[in-house]
Amino acid sequence: MIKSLKGQFILSIFVAIAFVYSTFLNIDFTVDERISPVRILFFFIMILSVFNAGLLTEKYIKTKQKK
Prior knowledge:
The chain has two helices and no strands. By secondary structure, the protein is an all-alpha fold.
């Protein structure tokens, strides 16, 4: 587990970018007859990882402003 805030920030940004990249790499922009549960799971994880990266960004900026 990464204890430093800077390490968590960098890791969360990397994970968010990786999820966005992998999701958009595997997305079909055509209408499909059925919706894949795996696709829904990846979208949900992508949204959560980007949200988490945003929260850690806010926390990192606040700690830098206090110094």
